[in-house]
Design brief:
Strand order of the largest sheet: 1-3-4-2
CATH topology: Thrombin, subunit H
Radius of gyration: 17 Å
Number of domains: 1
Number of helices: 0
Strand content: over 45%
Oligomer: single chain
CATH class: Mainly Beta
Low-confidence stretches: none
Number of strands: 15
Helix content: under 10%
Order of helices and strands: EEEEEEEEEEEEEEE
CATH architecture: Beta Barrel
Structural class: mainly beta
Length: 159
């Protein structure tokens, strides 16, 4: 199935199922170009993003963490993220959620594979992929500033 998301209301969505997780922003989801579901969330202007990953619509929302909506049955799972949500990365059929002080990895069915231990204080940024690991820049606040660390893609442990 093919999914897409719009943020503009269309009257085609008049009698479509709603999933209400907040009230500030609405995502209008189409499945195979037909209105499918409306997802309403609380809005945070910074550190908010969405991604379709296989049959899931994933919403990262600042301090609220991550909402995982299964597009086949519309069940919602909420996953807390330590600190705040930063952004998504997709590497080798896995979804990585980079946050304030760690990374959480999900497989293609959105099962959590691992969460790294506190590798940063105020932000993690992916720099590069090297074989079975990633190099991330981690904000350690004064006196450390930004420090590069290597993380195993299979375990989430610092190498």
């Amino acid at each position: 199935m093919n999914y897409r998301c719009e943020e503009t209301y269309n009257e085609e969505f008049e009698n479509i199922k709603r999933i209400v997780l907040g009230s500030d922003r609405s995502y209008y989801i189409y499945r195979d170009d037909k209105p499918y579901v409306i997802i309403e969330v609380r809005l945070f202007e910074c550190f908010s993003d969405t991604v379709f990953f296989h049959d899931h619509f994933v919403i990262g929302n600042y301090y609220e963490g991550v909402y995982i909506i299964n597009m086949l049955d519309l069940k919602v799972i909420h996953k807390d993220i330590s600190g705040y949500f930063g952004y998504f990365e997709i590497i080798d059929d896995n979804l990585y959620v980079l946050g304030c002080n760690n990374i959480t990895a999900f497989d293609s069915c959105m099962n959590e594979k691992w969460t790294s231990k506190d590798i940063a204080v105020d932000g993690v940024i992916l720099k590069e992929i090297e074989g079975d690991s990633i190099v991330v820049s981690c904000e350690m606040d004064p006196p450390g500033g930004w420090v590069n660390k290597r993380i195993s893609l299979s375990s989430g442990k610092q190498i």
